[in-house]
Amino acid sequence: MELDKIKAVDTLSLVDKVEHELMQYFKENNYKPGDPIAKELDLCDALGVSRTVVREALLRLRTLGFIDSKKHKGMTFKEPDIINNFERIMDPTLLGQKTLKSLFELRLILEMGMADFLFEYKTQEDLDELEEIVRLEEETSYDKTAFELNKEIAFHGKLYKISKNTTLQRFHGLLLPVFEYLYQQEEFTKNSTYEYTAGQFVSHRMLLNNLKVGTPETFRGAMRRHLEPHFDRAFFKKKRT
Amino acid sequence: MELDKIKAVDTLSLVDKVEHELMQYFKENNYKPGDPIAKELDLCDALGVSRTVVREALLRLRTLGFIDSKKHKGMTFKEPDIINNFERIMDPTLLGQKTLKSLFELRLILEMGMADFLFEYKTQEDLDELEEIVRLEEETSYDKTAFELNKEIAFHGKLYKISKNTTLQRFHGLLLPVFEYLYQQEEFTKNSTYEYTAGQFVSHRMLLNNLKVGTPETFRGAMRRHLEPHFDRAFFKKKRT
């Protein structure tokens, strides 16, 4: 028996197959949001499987966001919300340390990478709003290098908004609980201060000024410096006291 | 009647409530991957709802990746794979134009933002591999500014790998079909060349040299220049001929 010619046995469950078949059908027939989907019983007939199997496959597609179903109105096709699925599982208490670390790093990458979008889309209104955030922060801060989560969120959250990228904004929104959790978990409290290698600390005020009169290049440099404690943390170069 | 004191009616379905209740239970009891989950019938009793409702809620959690269930072995809890959910819905033919644009932008942001990780984790082996990718590319390219998707993927895909961030790598993997689709859809073919504003085009060869002897700062500058056609496209500044 030549085993290189033997065909792998199909191990997909019936539900997997029906899920796959339905997705193929939607794609090939160019389904658009709002298009009605055939009734369960008709699908059973067409697919030649039991109602239980069809029902379970439809439930999966509903959970993933491809199907909308309202009582007495039948099912319709919809464009899945790419962030919504993420949102439902993004619970820091249920994610492992490795995943949490990779999400933390992702935040650093996003904030370093978004500079061009900030300079492209910033408006006077945005700058005024950041000005107000920084002003409030300065009024209530004694130690400007101390880390305070709520101030971080106000300032950096506004930057995500300026990027005009809704996927990015919502992604940031659902990463927030992850950051809060990480900060609570470790030594990132407002009582810990970070020792900068050399030279000046870059504050939110300085980032704002850079956004006003700088370029994406100068802003990236300033942001890198601002995020230095977080980068050192990601790379296990701890300098916290 | 004082309407500000009236309580909003609970409009969640029974299945929603059971899903929520189960998630709360897992969190409060600090469930870890592999922990067994009670049987359907026991859950029905404890929650006071029908088997159909429990079954549907469990199916949802299974689809989201919180529950593993093998035949004759019962259900166990698992850490959801944050990318797997994304993967299942990331089909460019089923996503709207706005979502596709935001994903395209996200790629630019990630590649601009990952420089520090590349310099932190690069090894001689990585550089050798990139060297080989660039060598092959140069051997088969006539016009170095022409865009060829497969060469892009080889080079940039390797950069994602060097970042050592598995979430980022897998995210890039599932964005690939989106990029392919966008390039096919629009004028980004290998026959179209991009007119650079002024000065030198930054090739993969130059990015590689930068990664060898430069810094994250110089690399970001080079990458920005390399990605210029894509940024111009994102900002609707078309300079293609």
What this model shows, in words?
The structure is a homodimer of 241-residue chains. In chain A, 61% of the residues lie in helices and 3% in strands. In chain A, β1 (67-70) and β2 form a beta hairpin. The first copy, chain A, has two domains: 3-80, Winged helix-like DNA-binding domain superfamily/Winged helix DNA-binding domain (Arc Repressor Mutant, subunit A), CATH 1.10.10; 84-234, Four Helix Bundle (Hemerythrin (Met), subunit A). The model of chain A has no long low-confidence stretch (mean pLDDT 83). Chain A starts with 13 loop residues before the first helix and ends in a 7-residue tail after the last helix. Chain A is mainly α and 241 residues long. In chain A, strands 1-2 form a two-stranded antiparallel ribbon.
Q: How are the strands of the biggest sheet of chain A laid out side by side? A: 1-2
Strand content of chain A: under 5%
**Morphology of chain A:** elongated
Helix content of chain A: 55-70%
* Oligomer classification: homodimer
- Based on DSSP secondary structure assignment, what is the total number of beta strands of chain A? 2
Level-2 CATH architecture of the largest domain in chain A: Up-down Bundle
Mean pLDDT of chain A: 83
Helix-strand sequence of chain A: HHHEEHHHHHHHHH
CA distance, first residue to last residue of chain A: 68 Å
Most extensive interface, chain pair and sizes:
A-B, 55 and 55 residues
Helices and strands, with pairings:
Two copies of one chain form a homodimer.
Chain A: H1 14-28, H2 40-47, H3 51-64, E1 67-70, E2 74-77, H4 82-89, H5 97-113, H6 115-121, H7 124-140, H8 149-162, H9 166-185, H10 204-213, H11 216-226, H12 228-234
Antiparallel strand pairs in A: 1-2
